[in-house]
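SEQUENCE AND FOLD
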Amino acid sequence: MVNGNEKLLYAAKNDTEKLLKQFNNTKDGFNNEQVEKMRDEYGKNVITHQEKNSAIKKIIKAFLNPFTIILLVLAIVMIVTDVILEETGSRDYSGALIVFTMVTMSGILSFYQDMRQSKAAEKLKSLIITTTCVIRNKIRIEIPIGEIVVGDIICLSAGDMVSADMRVLTSKDFFISESSLTGESNPVEKKSDIERFDHMNSLELTNLVFMGSNVISGSATCLVITIGNDTHLGHIAKTLTTKKTATNFEKGVSSVSWLLIRFMAIMVPVVFVINGLTKGVVLGGGAPAWSQALLFGLAVAVGLTPEMLPMIVTAGLAKGSVRLSKKKTIVKNINSIQNFGAIDILCTDKTGTLTEDEISLEKYLNINAKEDKRILRHAFLNSYYQTGVKNIMDRAILARAKEYGAEELVKQYEKIDEIPFDFTRRRMSVVIKDSKNKLQLITKGAVEEMLSICSYAEYDKVVPLTEKIKNKIIKTVEKLNNEGMRVLAVAQKNNCSTEGLFSVQDEKDMVLIGYLAFLDPHKASAKDANKALDENRIKVKILTGDNLSVTQCIAGQVGLDINNTLVGSEITLMTDEELSDRAEEATIFAKLTPEQKTRIVNLLKRNNHVVGFMGDGINDASALREADVGISVDSAVDIAKESADIILLEKDLMILEEGIIEGRKTFANIIKYIKITASSNFGNVLTVLVASTLIPFLPMLPLQILLLNLIYNISCIAIPWDNVDAEYIKKPKKWEAKSIGKFMLWIGPISSIFDIMIFILMLFIIAPRYLGFTMTIDIFGSFNALTPNNQLTLMAIFQAGWFVLSLWTQTLVIHMIRTPKMPFIQSRASWPVIVLTSLGIIIGTIIPFTSLGEMIGMRSLPANFFIWLIITAILYMILVTVVKNFYIRRYKELL
């Protein structure tokens, strides 16, 4: 940062006229020719080396995860044992090839879904252009921040993101949040004074502002010194990419992944040792028992690895993201899709969410509550001359005043100064001068805050503001509030201080002259949206800086509880413990500061809630960051959009309800795969342990296990597109690794029961009839009594039988466990799931009868096997249904 830092230090220590001259600029701004010249010399205002999700990085992310790494290690071991250490004629590439096929299939599908989601998001993001106000050719214009050039004069006001490193030229109560750069949480005041002290670090200087910070209050004009890669943000972009705390979703995926990896790490060595000790004979193919046991252990490891989990997760999230993109909803953070489903509390502002955001000025009243155009004229001058963000109430004032030709007033007055709005004072002032050089301070703001600075009230004449008059004023305001109107007070005074020295201290001893009453009707859809959210077990809480009575009126109109309320003044006096308890019950939180909004969100999260926060103002930015899901809108201020996970192009709670449903569907389909695969794998391992102890040969060859796993995983590809029962998505869902373990213990052993049943059938009925011998209780003795050829035949039939049964049970259990209802009758899977699982069963059943089956050590199964297979499959589904119902009764849910 040597060059950039030196430029900024130089700018801080020199006067503005010298700096403007150096850039060949004036306070009128560049012309078009100068802009192009500066762009050619200094480049575009773009950070080119910022962290990006390039195609290469997406490929690496798709192929490198704990499960694929395990599979790749296993494949390498197989290459060493089956290829490198084997003689030329005995080399077998098939095992490693199958593992590589699974890794490739999972990686390609994950990459495809990730790219698809990214393209959809980028397409929507192009609709959102962040702009800044710049002076060019003597006028103020809004331009995209990428078009800023060195030497430009930028106008900043509350809510703006600082889009370059700049020197402050003029300022008024100008406070900046630099927490993303310095870690300092408190706003820093910036002034135009020349820096007199020697500093090596430009971040310490009070007359410089930096890209990535945001304006809290006040206004300023600034000169652009460095842009793009030359800014502080450009040089330390990689270290500035601060990630939010891991979400509930991310923690859940991680915990489940490591649970399965730990399970595999324990079971695989056990399987290896047992098989190595018990198979003290030379097995088919001529490999020593320990070598074959090692390969078998590796194959079991592959079978235990849910290699499709990354793909299922990515596909599910991408599917939800793409679906929402069609509804003009931009998903900035793809993991927030599932977080939508986990939300059980939605905190939202009032304006534009519950209301139409089309506020109109209904009344302009004097202290006697009579319409008075003089009040409108004062309000017009205040709104017209302010340079900060013109909110919807300012726009309503200007629109209403225009009907009466109030713009002619501009010719009679000259603006001298202003005292910008901030969220502590909740008011703003302008100082104007008429043709007779008479100065007048006009202030408008929230009623309570305005009463605190007024000493007089104007009836027919100016009188002291007594408690009696205050009470009368408050009753008038309450009446308007109860009618659903938002009220601002207007005050003025003529005996101002010396011109050019105005500040917040001048807002005192003012004369209250009247009120402005605004109406922002509730949205027609808000009541239905609130009802839908309530049906989905989501509590809606209003967090607003607005008046309590107005908020209660709107809340009542849309069906929210209006009795449990808290206001900012009460919250200030509460401890975290007290507020935590009250926040659970309260529905309306009114007259809040930004810090109080954030505090409430954090306390609700601490109470084990998953919290969504919807806001669009600068006062919402902190709460948006802290929420599990931050939601904003395209029309929001820059800092709100920057802080959000989700951006809506339409401000509508119904879209949120759709997002929540998508999140729950995504969770359901991901958890289906995890629970089904984990329980199946657990059951298979139990079976392998039993078989390894009681059977004198491997129950399935390593290559057969790999092929079985490949077919099963292909059947699972369609799970992200499965149907989800309507009842399931009626309440929030959270990740719980413990529930995976419980599910494995309940459902997994069921398959082992039927595996052992088929073992007994194969060893004592099916195979003996096929070979014409009698199997005794002494299985090892009976097996050793057979000829080597009959031993190989018995093993081949047995392994083929378990291969087919395993595929049937693993695949059928998808349909059994995907719903708590009766499968196929009360709840059917989507057609992609039905097609792929059916194909998997058909292909797997046919394999023993093909040359492929013979190549991997199988034999054609006798006809009577399929009678027993169907009986076993039916009994298996019945027992799974019974156990499933017991599990649901005990734990109240299945998935």
Observations:
- The two ends are 53 Å apart (CA to CA).
- The CA atoms of residues 669 and 720 lie 5 Å apart.
